[in-house]
Specification:
Layout lengths: L2 H8 L10 E3 H8 L3 H9 L6 E3 L2 E5 H15 L4 H13 L4 H46 L1
Length: about 140
């Protein structure tokens, strides 16, 4: 049986089953990312799939971690910040430290984005003003 078919045979799509397993291709397709990206996160220690022969087999924990990694990247967090967050999850079963860190990081991100929004609004106002001046100047010369 080819390796790809072995991984597909192992894969179980039942989300409620604790034994749900995914191939690297399954996760890449589900999250619209490349298998190379998933391997990169593995090299960085953010994902730890099991191996069956030469195949990577990802469980529900890996899938959940990948979701958190991608969300963190989308929100502008660095891989180091994401790793810190994921490591706290493993170390603190009550997730107190993890939640405190998350709150701190989110508050900082909100502050930074609010500042960027204000800066963007100022820049847009200046651009609108320059556009109006240019239009007025062109009308005066026509």
């Amino acid at each position: 049986m080819p390796a790809k078919h072995r991984a597909e045979t192992i894969h179980n799509r039942d989300q409620d089953d604790d034994a749900s397993l995914y191939s690297i291709g399954d996760l890449a397709s589900e999250f619209a990312i490349s298998t190379r990206t998933i391997r990169f996160y593995e090299v960085k220690g953010l994902l730890t799939p099991r191996r069956v022969g030469s195949n990577r087999i990802y469980g529900k924990r890996d899938r959940a971690r990948l979701l958190l990694i991608l969300r963190g990247k989308r929100l502008g967090f660095s891989l180091d910040e994401i790793a810190e967050y994921l490591n706290l999850y493993d170390a603190d079963p009550h997730q107190i430290a993890q939640t405190r860190l998350l709150l701190h990081k989110v508050e900082n991100a909100i502050t930074a984005l609010e500042q960027k929004r204000q800066d963007s609004e100022k820049a847009l106002a200046e651009l609108y003003e320059i556009r109006q001046l240019a239009i007025h100047q062109l009308k005066g010369r026509s």
